[in-house]
């Protein structure tokens, strides 16, 4: 089974927004990512629009030909309306805290069960595949399964953080979670802080990994290797 690479282009928008204007052009960059081999494009609009703007999502939707994955916090009505309007291939529900620098935890799928059931139903009725962002915790995976979601996305920051010092210990809860995902018949995605250094080991130890979404490290690597080479390097790790 091959794991698909979805390139998160938030950081390209961050660079554009730092000067105003349209350089780099986010839509062109996304199309180039696709041309260079990306199998999907991920965006994670936030209420402050500090990187991807809601307008970008509409523009991207017009032109992308690979899988479009929109991530974000569904407690924002604006986010829900945007996703229902665009109808991407996949929506990933993330419990972002307002003001957080980046996503820093998965859902408590037990506490938020009823809300997640409603949201998953809403998006699935619109023909959108759903994925719920969760920590590598079997209880949270089981809670996610009860919402009716198609997939879960494992929050991989703790793995990435622990990889350098003790990768066997770092991957262990992710293996357990992935096995449970498979038993429950859900699809499995993963992301956050995956990199050229830690991706191959993750891919080789996690059963049934359908998709990784990678942004920060990939765009940093592109400064050195160029976007086309970098996407090829990540594809090699994702397929290893
Ligand atoms: C859910 C997730 O892990 C990513 O979408 C990540 O949060 C990227 O968001 P930022 O680019 O805002 O850090
Ligand atoms: N879902 C994770 C994602 O889209 C990218 O996260 P990161 O690679 O920017 O940490």
Automatic annotation (TrEMBL):
<feature type="binding site">
    <location>
        <position position="19"/>
    </location>
    <ligand>
        <name>3-amino-2-oxopropyl phosphate</name>
    </ligand>
</feature>
<protein>
    <recommendedName>
        <fullName>Pyridoxine 5'-phosphate synthase</fullName>
        <ecNumber>2.6.99.2</ecNumber>
    </recommendedName>
</protein>
<dbReference type="GO" id="GO:0008615">
    <property type="term" value="P:pyridoxine biosynthetic process"/>
</dbReference>
<keyword id="KW-0664">Pyridoxine biosynthesis</keyword>
<feature type="binding site">
    <location>
        <position position="193"/>
    </location>
    <ligand>
        <name>3-amino-2-oxopropyl phosphate</name>
    </ligand>
</feature>
<keyword id="KW-0808">Transferase</keyword>
<comment type="similarity">
    <text>Belongs to the PNP synthase family.</text>
</comment>
<dbReference type="Pfam" id="PF03740">
    <property type="entry name" value="PdxJ"/>
</dbReference>
<feature type="binding site">
    <location>
        <position position="8"/>
    </location>
    <ligand>
        <name>3-amino-2-oxopropyl phosphate</name>
    </ligand>
</feature>
<dbReference type="InterPro" id="IPR004569">
    <property type="entry name" value="PyrdxlP_synth_PdxJ"/>
</dbReference>
<dbReference type="InterPro" id="IPR036130">
    <property type="entry name" value="Pyridoxine-5'_phos_synth"/>
</dbReference>
<dbReference type="GO" id="GO:0005829">
    <property type="term" value="C:cytosol"/>
</dbReference>
<feature type="site" description="Transition state stabilizer">
    <location>
        <position position="153"/>
    </location>
</feature>
<feature type="active site" description="Proton acceptor">
    <location>
        <position position="44"/>
    </location>
</feature>
<comment type="subunit">
    <text>Homooctamer; tetramer of dimers.</text>
</comment>
<dbReference type="GO" id="GO:0033856">
    <property type="term" value="F:pyridoxine 5'-phosphate synthase activity"/>
</dbReference>
<comment type="function">
    <text>Catalyzes the complicated ring closure reaction between the two acyclic compounds 1-deoxy-D-xylulose-5-phosphate (DXP) and 3-amino-2-oxopropyl phosphate (1-amino-acetone-3-phosphate or AAP) to form pyridoxine 5'-phosphate (PNP) and inorganic phosphate.</text>
</comment>
<feature type="active site" description="Proton donor">
    <location>
        <position position="192"/>
    </location>
</feature>
<feature type="active site" description="Proton acceptor">
    <location>
        <position position="71"/>
    </location>
</feature>
<feature type="binding site">
    <location>
        <position position="51"/>
    </location>
    <ligand>
        <name>1-deoxy-D-xylulose 5-phosphate</name>
    </ligand>
</feature>
<keyword id="KW-0963">Cytoplasm</keyword>
<feature type="binding site">
    <location>
        <position position="46"/>
    </location>
    <ligand>
        <name>1-deoxy-D-xylulose 5-phosphate</name>
    </ligand>
</feature>
<comment type="pathway">
    <text>Cofactor biosynthesis; pyridoxine 5'-phosphate biosynthesis; pyridoxine 5'-phosphate from D-erythrose 4-phosphate: step 5/5.</text>
</comment>
<feature type="binding site">
    <location>
        <position position="102"/>
    </location>
    <ligand>
        <name>1-deoxy-D-xylulose 5-phosphate</name>
    </ligand>
</feature>
<feature type="binding site">
    <location>
        <begin position="215"/>
        <end position="216"/>
    </location>
    <ligand>
        <name>3-amino-2-oxopropyl phosphate</name>
    </ligand>
</feature>
<dbReference type="InterPro" id="IPR013785">
    <property type="entry name" value="Aldolase_TIM"/>
</dbReference>
């Amino acid at each position: 089974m091959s794991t698909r690479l979805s390139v998160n282009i938030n950081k390209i928008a961050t660079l554009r927004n730092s000067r105003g204007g349209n350089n780099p052009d986010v839509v062109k960059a996304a199309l180039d990512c696709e041309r260079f081999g990306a199998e999907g494009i991920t965006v994670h609009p936030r209420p402050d629009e500090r990187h991807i703007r809601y307008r970008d999502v509409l523009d991207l939707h017009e032109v992308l030909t690979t899988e479009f994955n929109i991530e974000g916090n569904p407690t924002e009505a604006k986010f829900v309306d945007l996703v229902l309007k665009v109808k991407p291939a996949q929506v990933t529900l993330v419990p972002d805290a307002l003001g957080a620098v980046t996503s820093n935890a998965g859902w408590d799928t037990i506490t938020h069960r009823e809300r997640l059931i409603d949201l998953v139903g809403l998006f699935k009725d619109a023909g959108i595949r759903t994925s719920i962002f969760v920590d590598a915790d079997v209880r949270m995976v089981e809670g996610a399964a009860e919402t009716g979601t198609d997939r879960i996305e494992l929050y991989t920051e703790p793995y990435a953080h622990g990889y350098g010092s003790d990768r066997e210990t770092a991957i262990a809860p992710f293996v357990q979670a992935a096995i449970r995902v498979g038993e429950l018949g859900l699809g499995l995605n993963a992301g956050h802080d995956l990199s050229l250094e830690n991706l191959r080991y993750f891919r080789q130890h996690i059963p049934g990994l359908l998709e990784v979404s990678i942004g920060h490290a990939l765009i940093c690597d592109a400064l050195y290797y160029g976007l086309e080479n970098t996407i090829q390097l990540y594809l090699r790790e994702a397929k290893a």
